[in-house]
């Protein structure tokens, strides 16, 4: 197939997936209201005022840290539109934003800021899957992620969970692309960018600090390349120094892998510092407060409690997320997961197994924490969707190959 035709197909698929993901997240955003979105809007308003006054430390609002969402809202809507909603957000008596005139209209505008970001990240995930495991798996991943009901629902509200859920697989898939030698410098840069933004979104992104090195090992094993990286030439002089660093030959494979991980780690840290002004003012203080917040909130049950199997309970126990996944995942994804297992895990040693391990691992970690909510499991869902897409794509490929036999 000519390169131009292939490129046109990829672009057309990307545009189609973007629209498919955009439409259900964008329609009728003014028809619903959810709890705690006022908190995010208040913090976004505080960040907008902090940026306007160059008060960099005040861009730290909470230990989530939620910095990506707050910055997007602050930069898109501006301090003039957000000023009426700024203020304290700790304690029920201080949460006055929802009672401020114009609150709901401003909230809808803030939601619209995030919708195209969700759609774009879904397209990136689909294209990375395409590069790793073929066009059918990539297209199916994009369609399933674009239409998965639980992901769509959270992509329509002003919270961090959906954004984190889309950044995590981008970081992991890009790492697999780079270390499996299926791209040049760009997958490493993309993985660093996604990792840094995920860390700025919500603290469960810390799982990437262990998962990406595993992806590096899996990708290196799958590539079968031992002597040097096959880095594509670039016409942009600005990336040539980075390409030479990545491409530097060495007979020590372990050193080379560690060298790539060092570049990824430094790049991720640079993204955190560059995109969060609080790190410019008091970096150690910001990290300390994030650690304390995570320990306090993650180590205690929900303040208001919850329900599980019809009963009010503070901690639903380790089986909670198993039930949530069974109820929240669409039937197509559940079928795809079963198909993947019945087909003896196609691509299991080429990174697909790592996607399953990441999804299950996140679910297990969340199950061990006393604080539980169904939305907390959202980051595990895209990894399971990818595995299901590979399973369905493998089934379609086997059916296609069997057609000539059946017609004879």
Structure in words:
The chain has one domain (3-397). Helix content is 67%, strand content 1%. It is built from 17 helices and two strands. It has helices at 3-26, 37-52, 67-82, 103-133, 135-147, 149-154, 161-179, 186-201, 208-223, 240-247, 253-275, 278-281, 283-298, 320-328, 331-342, 352-368, 381-407, and strands at residues 306-308, 311-313. A two-stranded antiparallel sheet has the order 1-2. The longest helix has 31 residues, at 103-133. The radius of gyration is 22 Å and the shape is globular.
Give the SSE layout.
Elements: H1 3-26, H2 37-52, H3 67-82, H4 103-133, H5 135-147, H6 149-154, H7 161-179, H8 186-201, H9 208-223, H10 240-247, H11 253-275, H12 278-281, H13 283-298, E1 306-308, E2 311-313, H14 320-328, H15 331-342, H16 352-368, H17 381-407
Antiparallel strand pairs: 1-2
Quaternary arrangement of the chains shown?
Answer: single chain
Relative strand content: under 5%
Helix content: 55-70%
Q: How many strand units? A: 2
Mean pLDDT: 88
Element string (H = helix, E = strand):
HHHHHHHHHHHHHEEHHHH
Structural class: mainly alpha
């Amino acid at each position: 197939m000519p390169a131009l035709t292939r490129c046109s197909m990829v672009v057309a698929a990307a545009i189609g997936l973007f629209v498919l993901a955009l439409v259900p997240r964008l329609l009728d955003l003014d028809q619903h209201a959810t709890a705690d979105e006022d908190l995010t809007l208040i913090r976004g308003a505080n960040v907008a005022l902090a940026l306007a006054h160059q008060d960099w430390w005040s861009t730290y609002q909470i230990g989530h840290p939620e910095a990506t969402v707050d910055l997007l809202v602050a930069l898109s809507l501006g301090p003039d539109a957000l000023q009426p909603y700024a203020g304290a957000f700790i304690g029920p008596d201080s949460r006055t934003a929802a009672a401020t005139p114009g609150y709901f209209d401003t909230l809808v505008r803030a939601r619209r800021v995030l919708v195209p970001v969700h759609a774009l990240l879904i397209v990136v995930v689909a294209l990375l899957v395409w590069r790793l495991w073929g066009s059918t798996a990539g297209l199916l991943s994009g369609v399933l992620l674009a239409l998965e009901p639980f992901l769509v629902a959270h992509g329509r509200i002003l919270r961090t969970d959906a954004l984190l859920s889309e950044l995590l697989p981008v970081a992991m898939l890009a790492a697999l692309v780079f270390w499996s030698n299926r791209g040049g410098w760009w997958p490493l840069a993309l993985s660093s960018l996604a990792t840094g933004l995920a860390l700025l979104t919500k603290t469960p992104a810390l799982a990437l600090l262990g998962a990406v090195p595993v992806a590096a090992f899996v990708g290196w094993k799958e590539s079968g390349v031992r002597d040097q990286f096959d880095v594509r030439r670039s016409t942009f002089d600005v990336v040539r120094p980075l390409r030479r660093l990545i491409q530097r030959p060495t007979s020590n494979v372990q050193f080379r892998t560690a060298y790539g991980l060092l570049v990824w780690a430094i790049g991720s840290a640079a993204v955190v510092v560059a995109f969060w002004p609080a790190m410019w003012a008091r970096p150690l203080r910001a990290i300390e407060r994030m650690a304390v917040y995570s320990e306090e909130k993650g180590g205690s049950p929900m303040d208001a409690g919850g329900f599980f199997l019809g009963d009010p309970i503070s901690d639903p126990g380790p089986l909670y997320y198993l039930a949530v996944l069974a109820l929240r995942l669409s039937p197509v994804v559940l079928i795809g997961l079963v198909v993947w297992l019945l087909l003896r895990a196609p691509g299991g040693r080429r990174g697909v197994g790592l996607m399953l391990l990441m999804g299950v691992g996140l679910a297990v970690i969340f199950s061990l924490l006393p604080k539980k909510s169904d939305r907390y499991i959202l980051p595990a869902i895209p990894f399971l969707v990818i595995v299901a897409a590979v399973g369905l794509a493998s089934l379609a490929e086997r059916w296609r190959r069997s057609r000539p036999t059946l017609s004879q």
